[in-house]
Design brief:
- The chain is of the alpha/beta class.
- The chain has a single domain (6-174), classed as Rossmann fold (3-Layer(aba) Sandwich), CATH 3.40.50.1950.
- The protein is 38% helix and 15% strand.
- The chain is built from seven helices and six strands.
- The chain has a six-stranded parallel β-sheet, with helices on both faces.
- Helix 4 packs across helix 6.
- The radius of gyration is 17 Å and the shape is globular.
- The model has no long low-confidence stretch (mean pLDDT 93).
Length: 196
């Protein structure tokens, strides 16, 4: 019997809502089951930074939960998933998860993923980073979480912001062994320098 992959997607209020939107767009074209939870501040950031509405975002996911729904399926370890990605992950959420302080469903679902030893990917958004941010990242990395700041790559010579977003989304999916060739991967071949 083939078991479908099941990924929890959390979106918090840090800048970079487009990464969460694009991830859901890509996953909606696969057979992977997505479970979405969006924090209150993420909804405001989404509306400010993108043309995607909450209704449009909900349409991209298989299941959607309210941030205050602490009885949701994803709040229990007995609900099997392949892990969770929080994209973007605010420093507030990073800190709450690091301290086990689950004041809404994004944090609780991440806590469940950690306690069940499943894959947790945090697409952290902040710059510059202070010592608290770095300590929280290190603490979670030591617990097995993957810290994946959305750092752009230039070896594939991106031609647009969309190319750069797709590179990050591809790298997120790599963490779950989901292969999507959204942009060129590094092949070890150095290209000719750009003419000046």
């Amino acid at each position: 019997m083939t078991v479908m992959k099941r990924i929890v997607v959390g979106i918090t209020g840090a800048t970079g809502a487009i990464f969460g939107v694009r991830l859901l767009e890509v996953l909606s074209d696969t057979d992977i089951e997505t479970h979405l939870v969006v924090s209150k501040w993420a909804q405001q950031t989404l509306e400010h930074e993108t043309s995607t509405t909450m209704a449009g975002l909900r349409d991209l996911a298989d299941e959607v939960y309210a941030a205050g729904d602490m009885g949701a399926a994803i709040s229990s370890g007995s609900f099997r998933t392949d892990g969770m990605v929080i994209v973007p992950c605010s420093m507030r959420s990073l800190g709450a998860i690091a301290q086990g302080f689950g004041d809404h469903l994004v944090h609780r679902a991440a806590d469940v993923v950690l306690k069940e030893r499943r894959k947790l990917v945090l697409v952290t958004r902040e710059t510059p980073l202070n010592e608290i941010h770095l300590e929280n990242m290190l603490k979670l990395a030591r617990m097995g979480a993957t810290i994946l700041p959305p750092m752009p790559a230039f070896y594939d010579r991106p031609k647009s912001l969309e190319d750069m977003i797709d590179h990050i989304v591809m790298r997120i999916l790599d963490q779950f062994d989901i292969s999507q060739e959204l942009t060129a991967r590094w092949d070890g071949q150095m290209g000719k320098p750009n003419p000046e």
